[in-house]
Amino acid sequence: MSEIPSPSAASTDVVAAALELFEQQGFEATSVEQIASAAGVSRSTFFRQFGGKEDVVFADHEVLLNDVRAYLARGHADPWRAVCEASERVFRHFAADPDVARRRYSVVRRVPALREREIVTVFRYERLFDQYLREAIPGLDPLEAVGFAALVTAVHNHVLRRLLRGERVRIGVLRAALDDARRRYGVLPDDAGNADDVVVAVFPRRMPAAEVTRRLRERLT
Amino acid sequence: MSEIPSPSAASTDVVAAALELFEQQGFEATSVEQIASAAGVSRSTFFRQFGGKEDVVFADHEVLLNDVRAYLARGHADPWRAVCEASERVFRHFAADPDVARRRYSVVRRVPALREREIVTVFRYERLFDQYLREAIPGLDPLEAVGFAALVTAVHNHVLRRLLRGERVRIGVLRAALDDARRRYGVLPDDAGNADDVVVAVFPRRMPAAEVTRRLRERLT
């Protein structure tokens, strides 16, 4: 968790102040002036940190998307697992401060324009996962990348939404769901026994051919 | 294909005229007046048929979403298959008139606001599939419904996008990808032999428990 860069303390204060005002008096009825004054910053500071009122609500996602991009770019032995770990990083970020996350959720739910922007934002994670998988596994059928990215994103959002609605959801719930996703793609390493002298490679039939190739190459070099 | 209700011939003409203008002179630069005059309808007729310029672009999706909703509501012996068939219906609709579909795609790609609205529209199919599965299979773990709906939608869009980019894509490509999706969820009926006297029910371990129950109940009543 400590690895995830946070927005500066100043902008975190602005986000908190804005969300509180949005929740109390409504998103539409809240002006930038009110937010700036509640957060103790100038109007121009606000506009330097955020493009507008909407951007305050989605500031965390910008930070997280950059974090996920950087995390994936580090290089990972198992790209499928890396995507799942990226999803867990995002979940942990919101779970670390559920009150702010819930306040944001309740604001977003009430404003159609914010709901739509959230759908678009969620899709940016999905596309990021998709692109990463295609790059990390040359020759991977795009259908496999697209499908796995969508599955992980959907599962992640469902578990996160439960948290945001007030449920106490442990990270283990998400992890189990992501393991399931990998199992469906035949890319969850199982902890079956291994022999010392003979290596027999067994791959589930539903594992993408490009992934089989990648794993064999990894073993043989 | 003939089962899918089409927008009235009049509104189809307006859509075609609008897409042609959008492609020639840009979405922003095209006025409602120009569309109405090119399509030979009055401004008030235009506004009666569509809420605004953007709605012309997404008019087909409104028709298709209603068609999918009605199709799923008919009741189906195999809900997983019904979702895949709904996806095929949507694909067939666009494949039947690829020129108009490609023109729309090229307009949407160039206008960020339209791209975002498309993402939101795609999500409406996903949510429809998700809700249908939960209703059709009582007790189904929402994670299974959410994941399968996302997988089908993502796979569908990938194949459709290939068509819209000018590739000749047959419906069989989509069907194979949707079969894969069902296989990953253990819900693709296989055509293995069947005995006459003894019924042995074998279910893949990864099949959702609620789906096993549903199938057993169906057999035993």
Low-confidence stretches of chain A: 191-199
Helix-strand pattern of chain A: HHHHHHHHHH
Question: Can you summarize the main beta sheet of chain A?
Answer: none
Return the average pLDDT of chain A rounded to an integer: 87
Determine the strand fraction of chain A and express it as a percent band.
under 5%
Radius of gyration of chain A (Å) = 21 Å
Question: Between the first and last Cα atoms of chain A, what is the distance in angstroms?
Answer: 34 Å
CATH arch. level architecture of chain A: Orthogonal Bundle
| Principal-axis shape of chain A | elongated
Q: What can you see in these coordinates?
A:
The structure is a homodimer. Chain A has one domain (about 55-220): Tetracycline Repressor, domain 2 (Orthogonal Bundle), CATH 1.10.357. The two termini of chain A are about 35 Å apart. Chain A has ten helices and no strands. Chain A has helices at about 10-25, 30-40, 45-50, 55-75, 80-95, 100-110, 110-135, 140-165, 170-185, 210-220. Chain A is mainly alpha-helical and about 220 residues long. The interface of A and B includes residues 120 and 158 of A. Chains A, B: Pfam families: TetR_N. Chains A, B: This is DNA-binding transcriptional regulator, AcrR family.
Quick tags:
homodimer, mainly alpha, Tetracycline Repressor, domain 2, 71% helix, Homeodomain-like_sf (chains A, B), DNA-binding transcriptional regulator, AcrR family (chains A, B), HTH-type_TetR-like_transc_reg (chains A, B), transcription cis-regulatory region binding (chains A, B), DNA-binding (chains A, B)
